TrEMBL record:
<feature type="compositionally biased region" description="Polar residues">
    <location>
        <begin position="285"/>
        <end position="298"/>
    </location>
</feature>
<feature type="region of interest" description="Disordered">
    <location>
        <begin position="281"/>
        <end position="343"/>
    </location>
</feature>
<dbReference type="InterPro" id="IPR011041">
    <property type="entry name" value="Quinoprot_gluc/sorb_DH_b-prop"/>
</dbReference>
<dbReference type="InterPro" id="IPR008979">
    <property type="entry name" value="Galactose-bd-like_sf"/>
</dbReference>
<dbReference type="InterPro" id="IPR055557">
    <property type="entry name" value="DUF7133"/>
</dbReference>
<dbReference type="Pfam" id="PF23500">
    <property type="entry name" value="DUF7133"/>
</dbReference>
<dbReference type="InterPro" id="IPR013222">
    <property type="entry name" value="Glyco_hyd_98_carb-bd"/>
</dbReference>
<dbReference type="InterPro" id="IPR029010">
    <property type="entry name" value="ThuA-like"/>
</dbReference>
<dbReference type="InterPro" id="IPR016024">
    <property type="entry name" value="ARM-type_fold"/>
</dbReference>
<protein>
    <submittedName>
        <fullName>NPCBM/NEW2 domain protein</fullName>
    </submittedName>
</protein>
<dbReference type="InterPro" id="IPR038637">
    <property type="entry name" value="NPCBM_sf"/>
</dbReference>
<dbReference type="Pfam" id="PF06283">
    <property type="entry name" value="ThuA"/>
</dbReference>
<dbReference type="InterPro" id="IPR029062">
    <property type="entry name" value="Class_I_gatase-like"/>
</dbReference>
<dbReference type="InterPro" id="IPR011989">
    <property type="entry name" value="ARM-like"/>
</dbReference>
<dbReference type="InterPro" id="IPR013428">
    <property type="entry name" value="Membrane-bound_put_N"/>
</dbReference>
<dbReference type="InterPro" id="IPR011042">
    <property type="entry name" value="6-blade_b-propeller_TolB-like"/>
</dbReference>
<feature type="domain" description="Glycosyl hydrolase family 98 putative carbohydrate-binding module">
    <location>
        <begin position="400"/>
        <end position="531"/>
    </location>
</feature>
Amino acid sequence: MRTLSLICLLAWSLIPIHQGRCESPGVAPLPDDKPLKVGFLAGRPSHGYGSHEHYAGCLLLANSLTEALPNVEVKVIKQGWPDEGVKALEGFDTLVVYCDGGARHLLNPHIDELDPLMKKGVGLVCIHYGVETPAGKTGDAFLDWIGGYFEANWSVNPHWVAQYETFPEHPISRGVKPFAINDEWYYHMRFRDEMKGVTPILSAHPPVDTLRRPDGPHSGNPAVRKAIANHEIQHMAWAAEREGGGRGFGFTGGHFHWNWGDENFRKVMLNAIVWTAHGEVPPQGVSSGDPSQEQLEANQDEPKPAEAASHAKQKPDAKPRNAKRIKRGVPQDAKANGSSSEAAQPIFASQPVSKQTPGHAVAIDVPLDGAQQLFLVVTDGGNGIACDWADWAEPRLLGPRGELKLTELKWKQASSQWGSVNVNKNANGQPLRIAGEPVSYGIGTHSNSVIRFEIPAGYERFVALGGLDNGGTDQAGASEVEFLVYTQAPPLAIAPGAASGSHEIADALENLDVGTGVAAMLFAAEPQLLSPSSIDIDHRGRVWVCEVVNYRGHKGKRAEGDRILILEDVDGDGQADKETVFYQGTDIDSAHGVCVLGDKVIVSAGDKVFLFTDRDGDDKPDHQAVLFSGISGAQHDHGIHAFTFGPDGKLYFNFGNVGQQVRDKEGKPIIDAAGNEVAAKRQPYQEGMVFRCNLDGSDFETLGWNFRNNWMVAVDSYGSIWQSDNDDDGNKGVRINYVMEYGNYGYKDEKTGAGWQSPRTGMSDNIPERHWHLNDPGVVPNLLLTGAGSPTGIAVYEGDLLPTLRGELIHCDAGPNVCRAYVVDNDGAGYQAEIRNLLTGSRDPWFRPSDVKVAPDGSLVVADWYDPGVGGHGMGDLDRGRLFRIVPANHDGNYKVPKLDFSTVNGAIDGLKSPNNSARSVAWQSLHRMGAKAESALLKMASSENPIYRARALWLLGKIEGRGPKTVAQAIADPDPNLRIVGVRLARQLNLEIGEYVTPLIRDASPQVRRELLVALRHCESTQKPQRWAELAVQYDGKDRWYLEALGLASDTDADACFAAWIETVGDDWNTPAGRDIVWRSRAKSAPALLVKILQDPATDEADQARYMRAFDFHDGDEKELALKSLLGL
């Protein structure tokens, strides 16, 4: 069997494979004379206007079906189960049920009546709440009929933006294109065992913050938390086939009625209805015209509230209103313990109030401490909003001016997720009653709800009773709410305007979720700026913006060209109040990068990199030059990106896989420090690349290659390089890279340039791994896979203002609408990371963070491209753009920028300690010019207890003439491995002999330090290299892929000599797990013969044979051919 397996693997590696596409068998169409009959069962009115619109939704879907397919007959049955019983349902080919679920599901009492129809093959479609039913008899029926259901204490019902990017080959998927939409997407459904007969249709990875609520029947449980922690895919829509031929479909979306206006959202449902009826779904799906706003508003159960009326769009003030509005993240346990702190926690937070609570109510009496606003918030108790009628009974303000009833004070804004907010009436307009007792005066509402008042002067306390109204407790549902009182905009409640998807500046903060321990505020917004693609922050705290209008299909829209803006907060209150146009022109249309270095400004745009100089400081360029040219990908997202200044005084930048090549300012090809032309020709470079050069463009290095669309690099103070890389859309393979220098990162096949889908020996079953060729020898591992997305700007945070973020990567991903921190930890010779969300557009999917930078005060500024879509070179909104600022949770929001005097040694040292990269760049250049005059101050900084400060000082000290070797010696003797790494990197840049830094560290305890020695050996020409490499190779543990790839990239430039030195060192003991890995990775001519020995070794696991066979593909020449023949016994 072993011989046969080897021969099959060998044949696989040598013979071309021809693939055929396997088509799913089509469903036979109904005869033309037999129409498709669809029955809709619309549940009773449930939620407020625009939500759970069962009747309006059924009518809209029915009309869409008949518009698209003339031979379809529809009937919509209103108010639930028909009066005439199951007979009214006979003759339909499928039934569509859109209703409230759980214990109130309209099908629950009729399971036995309906089952014979199901056994006859009648289809069944259940929408949104209609997929929830109790476990037991009804749950078992749903498993049979539609393949799955929402089970309380197993499934969850959060609101979130689901991104659907890939779809199965199934009739329901026909014509459906990738889409993202905000809904109450239930997930973690209870499905049939082993998904028998069930095909997931809409699947995605819910973000972790969808489980931010405490555990409850609908909000969370240990099983779902474990599933999300393990990154298990979740299914929000599915198709099922029954024994006997019946078909079912479950769809957890449909909370927001407006979502039926989305073509893809609607098409999934229409296709499913036709499929469950055994109809033929057209090749492009059931296509219907988008409903108008008037059609969407028609037939709803509730009258249109006044606050939902459309308002003429008004031009906002130059400075956003409500100055210094701050939204603060709240710890998950804030509501439970009712604590109050400066972090915008509620001043009152009740325990859950239910029918078990004495009197169904809680007393509230809290001081206002001079607050000017009052927010009364009701949230669900973690089990959904059903029956959550709530009253603020006898709410009043007390103080020196006496007593003021809130029923006599007009609120500024009020919203409720069901019913309406009413004075002296409950959410349904009936008298207020709590526990059967009338309420003398009060405000009736329903979870989730926010009511905002402005507090008149002269009042110091708020007093009320928060209770459950009998309108909810008299029902069978589990009424349970929490009452919260805030004096700042509430971070956890449903935001006013959120349900309507408001895009107004006033709602910008409320539509974001803010991470624990931090707060966010709006720094600038339209019309101050539009669509920022990239930002930088100078040493004065001013934000420089690439403002893009002339993008792709909108090219020429602004005839004067796109702009580089400077936004400044003159009065220091945390909001920009001055805008300056630094430069405007068509030559920078669709710019992707701006980097500010004192009086120099680098702009990456189109096929060029421009260097602007402002000599007189008037914020207008006095000189414009070309730094680099000839870059492909003008008006393409995968072209040139932003530059950044490194701690070594050099520039770092990258381009995506359309950039192709970099040429000098005169258009001539660049030959880099390794002697290679900088071009994607697989010699060895291909696809996206990372670069380093001097400030004038000289000493050009190519540091990494074979990325797809690596958007911007960040460099920490130790010289480590970090970036993100986007996958081929739809494969959930977005990655974060630690860029180990001179590595190949696996987007395309290293030798052939073939894409990840091309068959190859040993390819992974896991698509993200397969996508990046991670099973191939010679591919550097990923730091982190983040799933689906459109990754953008990245920064390293090394400031003090946000200490919990120190040392973390801060990254924007416009696809899932999030700005994150990546908590990086050591992993052998490399690193690993975990995700922490900072800003999430939970209620506004137009939030598209495009870049993030660290300001001089240590705060973060996040740019928001703000658009309905992202990717595919589309741009749907040209009129908006925003900047948000992230500060500590207890921050006052002011923006105080330290003033620095770079002309003095001490002032420049302060600048070198700045958390702001632009300030450090000015300080670095000033201190470098000072040379020996700055040596004493730098030596003092190099002895700091702060390793970040030590690193920055050592880089500069090492570049003072005559100080290089002793600075390297100081660095490699540091107890911190990161500082020893700095020493190795500095020695490389100074071209020191390897005996001065490799030999002393050859047995270093840190695998990361030894990794860096291997990187240093790659271009080393010393005769000592092979032996030093062998000494490092014998320290490989057989497990650390980072270390293995460092060994590989070090030896690739001298593979035969290095491999021979290793064999001489280990002798016959080479055949160990570590040794086999080294053979697998090596490109030496003698490696194929050892691969044969491994394959023929009885101890080699059969599962590993494909891996070793794949290694042959990376060899050429007679040695490979002889080895393969020997394997076949020839």
